[in-house]
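Re-run with default settings, no changes from the original entry. Doing this only to confirm the output is reproducible before filing.
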Amino acid sequence: MLASQPQHHHLSAVLHLHLQDHRISLPPATTLHSPATNSTRHFAFRISSSRYHRTLPEVQDNDAASTTENKNLRTHNAKSTALLLQHLSPQVEKKPDGENQEIYVPLLKQDKEKLLEISLLSKRTPQFPGSIYTDPSVPLVQSVFKGRNSDVNYNEDEVDDEMLLKALEIRRKVTAEIFKEAMKKGRFGITYSENLLSKIPEFIDYVMIKAVSMKNFAEFSRASYNVRAEVFIHESGVVPLIRWLKHNSLSYPQIGKLICASKGDVESIKRLAEWLKTIHVKGRFIGVALTRSGGDVLERSADELDEIVDYLEENGVRRDWVGYVVSRCPEVLSFTMDQLRSRAEFYLKMSMDKNDFGTMLFDCPKVLGYLSLEEMNQKVAYLMEFGLSNEDVGRLLAHKPQLMACSIEERWQPLVKYFYYLGISKDGMRRILTVKPMVFCIDLENTIAPKVQFLRDIGVEEDAIGSMLVRFPSLMTYSLHKKIRAVVIFLLTKAGVSQRNIGKVVALGPELLGCSIAHKLDHNVKYFLSLGIYLPILGEMISDFPMLLRYNIDVLRPKYRYLRRMMIRPLKDLIEFPSYSLEDRIIPRHKIMVENRVNFKLRYMLATTDEEFETRVKDAVERRRRFESGAVDEQSPDSMSFK
């Protein structure tokens, strides 16, 4: 502002100097030092004053010399001077046909964008000495939107579209700043507000649209855009909702996704979250259920959601399981009742009762919501190719529903080809599938193939590997380094098995690889060593009969005592002895042998049926009688008289 009479004189002198440099004469009627005139109120640009000015040559005027003798006059830059001269020059000129023609100031494209941004900003740009503030209401700024600047040759339509897009982008930034101010009032940090703002561009556009439409209401007809946007954000309740969602362990990406999916009805988010709590969805799974259930679920009523829960309860899903199922498979909430029934009946038709169906959903909720009906039919048909019936597949899926989450092309087909390469028949694959269905869910390249290669490395023959896997499919699910390799090292170092026989031991007894070293193998080895068996001999015994290390010592100990004390048998017979019941077979048959004064080897005493054993005892008694009567017959190699 030009505040005093001396300052008007200084500016008049400066203008005269610049007018002389540009050879432009100042109109006589134009004055700058009259405080009573209103011409200065309509300037497009206001010049900021400063306490520091450059020193100008004195003006050769007696009247001016007295007022400027010891004053420092200010020199304006070329741009501000040109703009001021344009304003002071005649604003209209006659066309040849007598019509008036507006004069536009030459502006570059970036100047236009700057003026546009100034006109849309929510706050006035901070001023400093020597700066220029633009009033957006004057014809100069309005001419920017018209796109008729004389120095820039743009197509009128192109300039209008470009300026509109620029104005929209600026207005979006203004709305974002208003939203951040609202978040600041809600005591959110700057970083959190900016991170959340980057996730809700659709909501910011929605606020813009609503703020503009509010101008049609009488109470907001004279309110600014900023006021309308602030009022809408406050009345929408989005800031308290963000605080509530954050308190319920939702991250800002989840909150942003929910706000955008709500389509402006942010209260629907809170209603759905409260409903999820009623079915025991807790903690971070509330956010998972809200974000993965789909945008349409926010538009569903509580009655529709309760109908889904009631149907699941009717088909074997317990009430306290529903929350777990929904939290792991939120897509079930987006199904219509017809879709839900068709998926449930798909499993129930495979002779699966409701209890098995409920247990299956609890074990693997994904089987109900992740796959389409076509994919489900394809997987069931593929499993039936192994010779399984529809009922067998139903029992299999009830036991291991994770099979439905596996891909046919990426998981099952490569595994089947690999099993054929190892010599496993279709019947063997069916056994693997029914005994250990998890094998068809694990990775072939990173899990199964390294184990097979390890078996080759320790000396297991190629033909025996396939039969091993069929006999003990759980082998493929054990950890190679923590389980299989550790057991092999124990057998070599602690159980006396030689490296030459380790492949034979593993091939004959692959179940040993599933035994615990601390609780089973080491305990058994120490017991046999305590009986006086040398370690190399124990290794040979294990090589011939690997199941020896899998016997229960508590059951084996009384049998050994009976063998040594009552039957007076050698220690090596212990290999054949432990697999039979002491009370049901060993003691009764030993008493029969003692009463009839006969003796048999253990394989003839225990490995026969009761009828065969009675026949063998009668034959032995008859041979002894004939021997005692003098008619000596040739003794049978498997029996002898007991005197």
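The first strand starts at residue 45 and ends at 47. The first helix runs from residue 5 to 21.
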